[in-house]
Amino acid sequence: MTRTFACLVCCSLLAIGVVDAATLLVANKSDHTVDLLDPATGESRATLPTGIAPHEVAVSPSGRHAVISNYGTRDHPGSSLTVIDVKSAEVLRTINLGEHQRPHGMVWFSKKRLAVTTEGSAHLLVVDPFEGAIVVEIETAQRVSHMTAVTRKGTRAFVANIRSGSVTAIDLKLQRKLRDIRTGAGAEGIALTPNGRELWVGNRGADTLSIVDPATLEIVATLPCAGVPIRVAMTPDGSRALVSCADTGEVALFDVEQRREIARRKLDLTTVPDAASRLFGDRFGESPVPVGVVVAPAGDRAWVAATQSDVVVVVDTQTLEVLDLLRAGREPDGMAYSKK
Fold first, then answer.
1. Average pLDDT rounded to a whole number, residues 262-289
2. Helices (H) and strands (E) in the chain, counts
3. CATH number of 23-338: 3.50.50.60, 1.10.10.10, 2.130.10.10, 3.30.365.10?
């Protein structure tokens, strides 16, 4: 009896530990904070201060640390990164990027290296988050260098440039730009398939998705995607791509192998009263403006940040059925998942 009870207690503690070990980090642009949510319950474990108008979140390979890009506002461009300890829920340091304003997209590509786009200076920076220093500066020479993706081995980076309608390929080992790939108007959302064989780019101005061969840097397919495709996220098995469509307030689901749209779900949400005063203003009307998308490690669900409705929508990655709504702060956008 005692042994059985002990085993039950042990199993219960392990189960609790599994829940406690996961965190969904959500950047709240209008609150200048990041929320650390329990993805199972939706409860916020902590709300930490960031710089002005944080836009994206990137979690380290270990899951212990996260970096938030402080993009700033129209009148006050940001130029810093906030580094936090996810496990202890505390801010560790702020990294000043100097002349490199409007940091945005970020990817950790090794234990101590972070790739960061800076729109204001048209660069991709390599940053050491622990030393708080810029290690490498690589100019894109493109307009509004926004999001980035990095190959699994950390040898090549791709930067989506909104106003140039292009993707810049960068050799991270040689620390130089390779070439620009003209994908389409408003190139923004970007994601590599897990096997590294395809790069998917959402061209929000053209309402298309471009599929690029990361090795040859050639466009191999262009797919229609109505509704301003603004972010792209892959399921861990590489079979599905989820695309948030800002204008129509929808999430689109694509079969990666067949390269076709197979489902689409409209998010039935109302906008908040002050939506018109935010970054997107009234550009997308009554749309909840889904932007950030993060897929769970198990691949069964995804979190979609509805920036103009102040909620994070949980959707099933096979059917796009809405499973839950999570509350964070005002104007949630960039998100990241940590196993801590």
1. 95
2. 1, 28
3. 2.130.10.10
